[in-house]
Design a protein that fits this description.
9 helices, globular, eight-stranded parallel β-sheet, about 45% helix, about 220 residues, TIM Barrel, alpha/beta, PLP-binding_barrel, binds pyridoxal-5'-phosphate
């Protein structure tokens, strides 16, 4: 696959769903990818990227930000409270606000600095014990708590269980967002982004389909 093929598939999925062209943002997930692959995408003009780890992103993106203007980098992976300050400096958005404790830490820092990235709250739609995120039954209360903390909550995010039809999880996430008046839906990865767009994804997070398999 290439960037332009994925862009074409995003557009086709938007059209098939009766959605406006360009209503889905394509996040190129660059975690663990060799720098030359990322630079190839930067050279093609793509400006929106996703990373999983604060430390890894801190080592890569400052240099690229000097060389390429208009970059946006979003954090998609788990965030520890002691990394919150660094994450808020590094990223334009955080998709993995997954528990009250991290929301409270972000809120304290936002009060102190007067700035905060866009936030997505992670919902554990599959209710998997090993997975991050609040359970669907606690989602409305978590949204309300984050709003009460004055946080810029833009939407919800989920990572469906690997062995289940993702469309059901995307539909559930969309329902929770809708009843909470949230516009943003961060859902869909390399294997299922078209199904996510059909369910209203505003942000799809595509890694290996753009860059190739991640080296292990
Ligand atoms: C790695 C990752 C992706 C991208 O996965 P691909 O299957 O390579 O597209 C998307 N979202 C999150 C949260 C990830 O960790």
């Amino acid at each position: 696959m290439s960037l332009s093929e994925i862009q074409a598939r995003v557009l086709a999925a938007e059209t098939a769903a009766g959605r406006a062209p360009g209503s889905t943002r394509l996040i190129a997930v660059s975690k663990l990818q060799p720098p030359e692959r990322v630079e190839a995408i930067l050279d093609r003009g793509h400006r929106l990227f996703g990373e999983n780890r604060v430390q890894e992103a801190a080592g890569k993106w400052p240099d690229w930000r000097e060389r390429f203007s208009g970059l946006e980098v979003h954090l998609l992976g788990p965030l520890q409270s002691n990394k919150a300050r660094q994450a808020m400096e590094l990223f334009e958005a955080i998709h993995s606000v997954d528990r009250p404790k991290i929301a409270q830490a972000i809120a304290r820092l936002a009060q102190e600095t007067g700035a905060c990235p866009d936030l997505f709250l992670q919902i554990n739609t599959g209710e998997e014990p090993q997975k991050a995120g609040v359970l669907p039954s606690g989602a409305d209360a978590f949204v309300a708590e984050c709003r009460g903390l004055d946080l810029p909550v833009r939407g919800l995010m989920c990572i469906p269980p690997v062995d289940e039809e993702p469309a059901l999880h995307f539909a559930l996430l969309a329902r929770i967002a809708e009843r909470n008046g949230l516009e943003g839906l961060s859902m869909g990865m390399s294997g299922d982004f078209e199904r996510a767009i059909a369910q209203g994804a505003t942000h799809v997070r595509v890694g290996s389909a753009i860059f190739g398999e991640r080296p292990t």
